Fold these 2 entries.
Entry 1:
Amino acid sequence: MIQSNVSLKSLNTFGFDVSSKLFAEANNEDQVRNVIQSNEFLSNKNLILGGGSNVLFTQDFNGIVLRNNINGIELIEEDEESVLVKVGGGVVWHEFVLYCIEKGWSGVENLSLIPGSVGASPMQNIGAYGIEIKELFHELEAINLKTGEIEYFNNSDCQFGYRESVFKNKFKGAYLISRVIYRLSKKQNFNISYGAIEKQLEIMGVQDLSARKISDAVIAIRQSKLPDPKEIGNSGSFFKNPIVSNEQYNRLKANFPKVIGYALGDSQTKLAAGWLIDQTGWKGKTIDNYGVHKNQALVLVNYGGATGKQIYDLSSEILLSVKEKFGVDLEREVNIY
Ligand code: FAD
Ligand code: NAP
């Protein structure tokens, strides 16, 4: 059923009080097709929404929002080493992570507590603590919003990059990702190379490593650093970490010896955007009821009642400050509507 004038306040983690002219939800592929073939869908702009944890609404949405609620987790293949699991796009990401841990499958534990839906996970190749989903991704099913047909995308079709995929670029707004197939390991294949995890496991006194313990460590780190959207509106990292050439990194290092960079292959360096923003004095700044989080300069926050336009304008000021001080272009990670 398509509804009119629906509030999106509880459907975006910034908690902006915006509404959508039209709104529908779909629990399966047939319901998606019914909506996308309707006059309301065909005659309006549209937005596919999952958990609303990576969107910034700068105004009311003057079109139709289609919320993806396709559920289900299905084991489709298994051998001695691994399993292939098909997951509905509407499944909550963290619930999928907990499901895998319960089953004894490893791979996603470092990605614990990332908000949002499984359907959005390939959108920006979600990543944290040294893992990106592209390392576990097998295939996805997506409904072409023009034809209603299901199309299949393998790993290379998705063109995954750092917080990027073909769905965030060339095919933005063209598909609804209905189901995603992940390959999980039945062996205990862990990655704890990310310093913060090792440190936290030590604090927790962990001797025998397990996916659950790594997940617990990641949850503890995240809860100590990141604002919970239920309490303070935010969309996680507002900006991506910029990737620059090694030459540019070396020039920066000469002027700012403490600049934080991580080598990406032989010729590029990933800069810690949080450090750059911190150095321009924005970390912890509050303007009325919004600002930059005190523990994490990448996270812009709505303390209640701020608008998306205010946060967007703040992000523009931050971009300018970083450009002026370091000559580096930051890019917004969040999807702006
Ligand atoms: P939404 O916000 O609903 O949508 C995001 C974009 O994807 C929109 O453009 C939307 O149109 C599109 N989209 C959503 N679902 C579909 C679908 N089924 N088919 C097609 N398009 C779709 N991200 C990380 O990568 N790593 C992190 O560690 C991380 N930590 C976070 C911490 C916090 C506190 C918060 C609030 C966010 C964090 N994020 C992180 C960002 C966010 O959680 C992810 O990007 C997540 O995948 C977004 O999922 P969602 O369902 O909420 O997407
Ligand atoms: P952090 O540990 O304080 O590190 C700061 C930045 O340095 C991170 O952005 C991270 O890049 C990079 N980094 C640190 N150690 C690294 C290593 N060993 N190798 C390569 N890069 C390294 O970061 P944080 O803010 O607390 O976040 C922790 C993790 O959760 C990060 O992976 C971050 O991406 C993820 N996270 C993402 C979001 C989001 O919305 N996208 C929100 C919160 C947390 P990477 O970001 O590339 O890992």
Note: Residues 48 and 317 are 29 Å apart (CA to CA).
Entry 2:
Amino acid sequence: MTTPQSPDPTLRYDAPATDWETQALPIGNGALGAMVFGGVGRERIQFNEKSLWTGGPGSEGHDHGNRARPRPGALAEVRARIDAEGRMSPEAVAALLGQPRRGYGAYQPFGDLWLDLPELPEASGVGGVAGGGTGTAGVSGYRRELDLGEAVARVGYTAGGVGHLREYFASHPGDVVVGRISADRPGRVSFTLRMSCPHPGGRVTVSAGRLTLRGALADNRMRFEAQVQVVACGGTRADGAGHVTVEGADSAVFVLSAGTDYADVHPGYRGDDPRARVTATVDEAAGTSYERLRAAHRADHRELFDRVVLTLGRRAPAAPEDPDPAIEAASVVPVVPTDRLRAAYTGGPSAADRALEALFFAYGRYLLIASSRRGSLPANLQGVWNDSTTPPWSADYHVNINLQMNYWLAEQTGLAETAEPYDRFVASLVAPGRESARRMFGVRGWVVHDETTPFGFTGVHDWPTAFWFPEAAAWLTRRLYEHYLFGGDLSYLREAAYPVMREAAVFWLDTLHVDPRDGTLVASPSYSPEHGDFSAGAAMSQQIVFDVLTNTLEAARTLGDDPAFRAELADALARLDPGVRIGSWGQLQEWKDDWDDPGDTHRHLSHLYALHPGSQVTAGTPEAEAARVSLVARGDGGTGWSKAWKIGFWARLLDGDHAHLTLAGQLRDSTLDNLWDTHPPFQIDGNLGAVAGMAEMLLQSAHGTVHVLPALPAAWPDGSVTGLRARGGVTVDVSWTGGAATRIVLRAGATGPIRVRAAMIAGPHRVRDAAGGTPGTTRAEDVLVVDARAGETYIVTAGESRAVTAGAHRVDGSPAA
Ligand code: FUC
């Protein structure tokens, strides 16, 4: 049996996975994640639940990273030394302000499902433990794929004249991972299902076709439970010692759910035993037909995924009167396995390369949907997927770039709802973060440093180059304000965003230090991630503080907060060193003093925060030119996430070709066969950050206009994108040909002017509303101001109008027919 050919973007392979990190395929519903290997004689499905963590309460030495006995005067001592000497080594600062990290913990794998398929003896027993049964002898037409539109992983092949098909998905509405094992001949589905667990405390029991894994982590006594119910259609089902066996069925379905007693509530971080919840969830799903589970999952996923479609490809010959020539999909590309597509990728002009880029874009959106849904923790360094009890960087929440980057694409690419876990997580850091601010700094407000956990680790450890970053709290609040800017939800601003922003700003009002050299307000000690010496007023510190004070002041004005507080913010902003300085070799300075080394290629480009994600620096200014000099010096290499950030920087500099060059480098050198980003190792921020960068190439709105195709590379002469979002509540579709927009569709979320900037506006074009009517517009050069009404659609088309619709008009400046 071959699997049905999906018209959706799909990752395809012609062999089972043998390696978790580089080959297995991820499915997820935010809380649950699973990695599908697709073995023939033995299938492995490794699974996770996002809250299963060691560390925190119950764990040895857990103290939120707050020094048990704060050393009074240590912070003042560091400030005084920096005032006197200008700099201090990270080691010297860590010796005074750091502390050994204890009770931090790490994100844990939950378990594995193993399907042994004795129908296929000739293919079983081959392959290592990782993939298990990966041999495909006696099998034809093997296909393994991940359909991004349906959010379904499939494995299909023919063996002994019987077509076999397995489908897996992780349903958000059902809160379960579902698998269906089927064959094209009745009575040919037979398998044994087992569950294993990497934690010594986990025990598996079996009853009535249900495997239950239950235990507690030795480290912190966190309780965990997973249940999987097998439902066979035809044939027989029998419980065995630690397994369930199905024989001679027409098909069979399993549903898996898992949970822990974690709760995101400070200070205990524990809630109910997971048993009742997991049992009820599995009972409910097991009592629902596969078709209904699948339909509910499909509707839920497509509602998010289908909002944005990017096509990079040739234009089909259009009918002369067709106002929106269809773009021929990259279907000109034959169906090549994704690993080969990636291996052959150069970033050159081939249609296959465009297809991979569009697939990578779709995949990043898929990955965010799969790893971040309402009701769970946010996407961590690996989203929700982890197979190791000691994952890299604990698979934690790094907040000196990584967590923030995970969510850059959410607003831009129509996935704002997926950021609910981020928003809730950031709010959950306020209570422990207040304690850290009080104990470590003696100030109001809240703080968090380089990295954190689900247990509110808001203090410090003592790794000299990555322990001190109190700016993280302020940076984390940027997304909250951006959600308001994109969607205009005033009650969200008032209730969810502003209280968290306000306290992050208050921390800085209390913490800023007067630089004795020039009287400006600076962060001190200040450390540009993960780089150089400590000093006062490093560029990133100042830019982030500028950002949080500016955003909080704007929000305070919008909400009419206390005038005295507004005056305090305005006064601090007036005295703040803005952290944007041009240095001796034309670079944007990373530090207040001109210490930058032109030969430095460090992966962090923290001093360009003001360019992206910040908006303090605008393309076309001397500061933007200096940012370009810094970027060129840092080079095009780096870790996966570093390259992803560079795509965004180049896009903000309106240099589409360099943005594309960076994307090409990421796809060539920092992307694995399963299209996961690699630092190395696998880290999801690069996947998600690259999508944000690609979106910035196509649409920007950080500087007061809806800028259409601001950084279109020569490599993308033709294409279309639908559903991108701009600040001000505008949804944008655009089609382009020969490097120029032919049609822009704007859907207004609010009543008021929309300022659209596009090269096409400077030439002949026309504007209509959905009914063919004429909206009020004004134009100056390449900026068109549309007098928009909420809910209305406006269509801007390039070129001379052919059939003039009744009521349509030429806007000012376009040549007469
Ligand atoms: C930051 C980066 C590292 C890595 C880690 C998880 O500290 O500097 O490269 O991505 O996060």
Note: The radius of gyration is 27 Å.
